Structures
1.
Amino acid sequence: MKVVVIGAGVGGLTTAALLAQVGLEVTVLEHHTYPGGSAGTFWHQGFRFDAGATLLAGFDEEGVFTRLERQLGVAFPVHRLPPGEALMEVWLPDGRVVPRPVGRTPELEAQRAAFGRPVQRFWQWQEKRALALWKVAQGLPFPPADGLEFLSLVQKGLPWALNNLMDLPGILADLVRPTLAHAPNHAAFRRFLDAQLLIASQTDAADTYALFGAAALDLPHRGPVVPLGGMGAVAEILAEAVRKHGGRVLYRHRAETLRVEHGRVRAVEVVMGGRRRGEREVIPADIFVANLTPGNLAALLPSSRPLPAPADGWGAFMLHAVVPAAVVPRGALYRQWAGEGDWTFVSLADPSDTLRGPSGMRVLSASVHTPLAEWRGLDKEAYRAKKQAWQARVEHQLERIIPGFRESARLILGATPRTYQFYTRRQDGWVGGYPQVHPLRTPSPKTPFPNLWRVGETIFPGQSVPAVAMGGERVAALILGRLGVKPFPLESFTVGRSHR
């Protein structure tokens, strides 16, 4: 049985590795020269930069990457953050810097110290909802893609609903009410929530539905780690796992067209890059997995109408930089400016990680949300001017977090949604998935073709690197279920207890 996976992002590689492990003949096609896509890591002038400023979790005992290590026989190169250590620091308009430490007790203490006792009730609600959700959320087939997933949803959902019967009215209400409904009337705390949720749900506390908000705010307690060598190390290990189990990962192979006959996808037409630039190849397969946005997939299908990115979808303006280690104030590796001006999220390389660059230098990536519409239709001169203006804005915000940044920076690279579109082929440079304004916003992996599936941040679950990997697990299970193959025990896809 032949499988072609289009796109070597974390979701596509997870699916590919799990399918290869059970003996399917798997080929991954990636137009770029390294894996990971928006969660990849690239080399420039001897330094390794993360394509996006991204947090990484999912390494708790029941986390997705812990499962993948056991299942695939791999080890991800990460530094695990112990309880009490600050995962992130958030700068607020009044000058306060609020830490988010690992562990529920340390975080609650930090929140009360920053905002007072009124926030305690909010965090009690968040913990209660998050712990209930994690008992059923991992591998939850929602919305169900087929009859088997519907049956699995019922089998998982009914016992869980009975166990949470007393809380069920509140849980159901949190599907439609916003996260902000649970927050105290505290301006600084609400701004803090908006900053945190914008990272994970792509919208603020007034628009993020409360169940998703509770899960998104749980990141510091889901096995947070620092990837050594950069975020792309996760994708690189998954690519190695594909090859280890007999699959192929082919770079500089750009999928151009999917050939459809009698209601099924039969083959993909590929255009080569590198030394074989311009050469074409047709690769037939029985099953296809697209690690693509809906619009990118539609562009590969004959007779499909253009499918635009969502009007509220976001792009990212990125600033990649290298500064002397002595310039960076002590503190967390992840920092967020939530004061006036552009909200800026900064990811710093671990000072001991010499894979990212030489000792004494710190590599960082800073990310700011930017509307996709601002970057469409610009001529070369207008684009250059806009990029320069945005870079100056982000440099200004970085100066607030790292005083002396501009003067001391040894290297600065700016990247726009157009940069993402060029290197990752993502439609308009859209990143982050759909803003989580209601639970039906993110669809299932199914497509109109029975042997074509989607994976990535635009299916459920898909908001964040661990969620994309869980989506990859889901798609692998769907494919193997239809083939009648049981690759691993059912409990591999569920959390049987509220372990954090």
Note: The longest strand covers residues 314-324.
2.
Amino acid sequence: MPKFKLFANKKGIADQKKNNQFVKFARQIYVEAKKGGPDPNANLKLKAIIANARAINMPMDNIERAIKKATDAGNADNYEEIRYEGYGPGGVAIIVECLSDNRNRTAADVRAIFNKRGGNLGETGSVSFMFDHKGVIVIDREEFDVDEDTIMMQALEAGAEDIVVEEDSYQVLTHPYELDSVKSGLEAEGYHFANASLQWIPQNTVKITGEDAANVLKMMDAFEENDDVQNVYANFEIDDEEMEMLNK
């Protein structure tokens, strides 16, 4: 299985990027509370989103404000889930998940980001076949003193499909429909999570360098800065030496 990183979990995130994440989580909380009810104990999807928001230290005031907004009968905000797919420089495949209250605006924004950095927006399904849709549970290795064999056994017993070992985290992979049950099983073992959500995992990666790498990274930043964009997934790989050159 190829190595992958979750953009939302990068360490050292700037304050502005964290504020952008708060805005995105507030929108997710609003949508799920409106759809499935405002009580996290009765709405497991809402509970999971709140847990992910709290993992990046989103204030409870922000969370409660989003839930209150969803229960306000006079509030007419209506968001729809939209997925865009396309290619970036170097043949990089990209999936962009959005929550939008204006489909035309969001489509224009996403297309502009692709075009500005030498990419192109494709049709739905044009790149998603290169990814697997999985539940991903991220466990911070610094918080839990457990060896790889133990956590692998616990994850598989809880119903997980696989586990990816990273330097700073264990990433437990599940079937999309099994995410909640695996999460509950690991919680029963005493774990809590840096993130637990559905992700698009690339089946293979494309190595990029030079101008292609620089433009792809700028494209990822532009998507992250857009309020309508909730998640971005891509199949590129940049080696450490190349990344150091780009950061100079």
Note: The chain has eight helices and ten strands.
3.
Amino acid sequence: MTPPIDFNDRMLSLGLARVTEAAAHASASLIGHGDEKAADQAAVNAMREQLNALEIKGVVVIGEGERDEAPMLYIGEEVGTGEGPAVDIALDPLEGTTLTAKDMPNALTVVSMAPRGTLLHAPDVYMEKLAIGPGYPKDVVSLEMTPSQRILELAKAKGVTPRDIQTCILERDRHKELIEEVRSTGASIRLITDGDVAGIIHTAETWLTGIDIYMGSGGAPEGVLAASALKCMGGQMWGKLLFRNDAERGRATKAGITDFDKIYSRDELVTGDVIFSMTGVTNGSIVKGVHRTPDYIETETVLMRSKTGSVRRMSYRNPIKRRDY
């Protein structure tokens, strides 16, 4: 077995926290202002500046889209000083642009980092996702099962009835039949309007969030980010890329995908050690949002390392202005 690559994750982790904190600071002034693009651009600019201060040879493998679609933090962009370890970077400068624009819960800034070649280069297409938290037998549920079978098997493994299982699903028209089938088992559903990275992370802390299982389709890039978090926190996840047309299949081919029907496990989405940082923008069930007073701005960040399984929760207070007394 090839030993895991040491990419100096312990030293880089605090630098990664600064990346998501800076993006949260930058987008915070646009909370509730109804301008999704401006909030996203502010986060992108701040995140890019901080990434370029890190001593890494970084490549963005999950980013804001193709180069011609995203002038900042596009897929394939090189970041960092050019010194230090070669790393893959997956990011969402503002996970929940609509949530930020409308001042709704669970908007986050998110980044994961791993040794070069260990994050799936997922194209910007949809992915069917399934996730549960730690403590269950391997493959107790699967994407090959129907939604109702998943609920029944998970309830059996947990030692409860289906009515005691809570499912998280992204509220979209495409999920209408999924929602109806899950409810037919007696299980309850928490519908979320945006932010399925947060939705999947909820499964890793059921005792806090109440969420047992996540189901449904969403962006493939967000799937890699969520898998990075679960690799640190524990839990199982599966993803299958979904293609609507030949253009999307071509995008997958360009990213190195050859098996269009493959179901990826968590450890196939993220094959090596990874560090993951997320900072709250609006208040949510995982982290607090940015808090301002006349004198300081405060953020809450969760920083994780898969190598140690550590989950560090940090509050950062930054003075807005200093007074001399």
Note: The mean pLDDT is 92.
